[in-house]
Amino acid sequence: MRFVNSLVVASALVAGFAAVPAKAADLFSPVPFVPEGWIVTLKGNLRVGPTYPGADKYSVIGYPSLSFRRAGTPERFSAPDDGLSFSFLEDSAIRVGVVGRFQGGRYLSDDRRLFGLDKINWAVEPGVFVEYWPLAFLRARAELRHGVNGHHGFVADLGLDLVQTFGALTFSVGPRLGLGDSSFTQTYFGVTPLEAALNGQVTPYRPSGGLTSVGATAGVTYSWSDQWSTTAFVTYKRLVSDAADSPIVKRFGSENQLGFGLTASYSFATGR
């Protein structure tokens, strides 16, 4: 495994899309800080996941993130696999805003079996999100994003989270669906005739857009104090449809995509 050079990209995303942190299911609990100024949350994130979509090899990514909210505003739950987001419409049950994600690239240095296949640069995916809480312990969220740099397709993630808090512990678990248009699937799962000829181990393949994965995410957060908390989580995706049928996945990768992560958060109040 190797550390991906994502620090600069992650910092840029944070600058554009301030994440809204949370570690509790109760949407209406008071914020345990002074009522004036801002609450700033600094996070150190460590994630392990497939090196590229469909890969059977794993990479480690370490990066910082930053989020903030006004003191006195309620603390909102955020799933470990949410994109970095900032809401411009928010009430007790609905949030709407902008979101951003980072997608690592696919390089020959990651796997020599990729010889002949086009290099795919890293990508950022800005977009919009909406989430809805039909119940105090149940959240539905949808993200629609467009790739920049590494790919130029549209992708969407749909999720449902059951959230429960027991003292200092908050548990969350729920299903996930991933979708991508033909531009996205052709970038990561397609094979041109030239690529097939150069590689010699895969055949030409032109996938269509649609459902790309199904899975689930589970996380647990422990609040050590009003300032400090840690979160551990695991994600699982099963590639389906045209993504799963890709010769790249069949020959070099895996339909099963596991991910793990750990986040340490520190929150503090600023002055007026």
UniProtKB/TrEMBL annotation:
<feature type="signal peptide">
    <location>
        <begin position="1"/>
        <end position="24"/>
    </location>
</feature>
<protein>
    <submittedName>
        <fullName>MipA/OmpV family protein</fullName>
    </submittedName>
</protein>
<comment type="similarity">
    <text>Belongs to the MipA/OmpV family.</text>
</comment>
<keyword id="KW-0998">Cell outer membrane</keyword>
<dbReference type="Pfam" id="PF06629">
    <property type="entry name" value="MipA"/>
</dbReference>
<dbReference type="InterPro" id="IPR010583">
    <property type="entry name" value="MipA"/>
</dbReference>
<keyword id="KW-0732">Signal</keyword>
<keyword id="KW-0472">Membrane</keyword>
